[in-house]
Fold this protein.
Amino acid sequence: MNLDSIVKIKSYEKVVYVLRRHGITFFPYLTIFIAILLIPIVVFWFFSTTFTGAMQNPNTYTLIIFAGSAYYLSTFLFFYSFFVEFYLDAWIVTNDRLVDVHQISLFARTVAEVDLYQIQDVSSEVHGFFPTIFNYGNIYLQTAGPIPKFIIHNVHRPDKLREAIIELASEDKKFHSGK
Amino acid sequence: MIVSIPLYVILFIYLAYAFVLALFSFVNFRHLHHNGALTFLSLSITFLVICLVASTIFFTFVLLSGVDWKLPLVLWNSDWISNTLNSINF
């Protein structure tokens, strides 16, 4: 992740983690996408068996091919857009702060950040069948800053990350208190 | 009264739509590039989407290869109404 394009990196700052949601959480999108791809096949089968005469008409045939093609092209674009939104949702942990990049849609994004020394409490949660099997979950950060609660969603190995963030926060607190 | 357009008008509408979709796809790719998220996974997905789009366009034109684009596509024919009214027994 190119942090420079999102926030200005300080001279002493280095990126420790770039966190994204666990890949398995993209699976529901993939299932929906496959189901959407099957719809025209069912519709075409229905029309070809019900309206046999209309399907022989060259105009109807052309329109159906164009409609089907436009449908598939749109579906591929939606899939790509979903993937980009999913992939650009990221949490960047540096030795100084945590940056939350949330890609809401193609033309909307929010960026929030919290200084590590402001973190008061870190907790992790693995809740549910798939999160337990694939070891992913949420990390909740309670801060003294303007954003009271910071949530890192569906990241891999949340327990280890919680420990790492606590460690980084404690180092950052030492650094800031020594100033 | 009959209102009709040649079939190639639909082809132009389709191409215009495909152009808009290509533009949106480019914006998506630019997001990935701008945020430094061009990894093996994101490039693979981009390549997969490009292959799917190319196949869709290819098969569309294969299926439409025999079409006479000058054929009129009737949008409106007043006979549709008169025939419907004549078929109804008041």
Q: What stands out?
A: The mean pLDDT of chain A is 88.
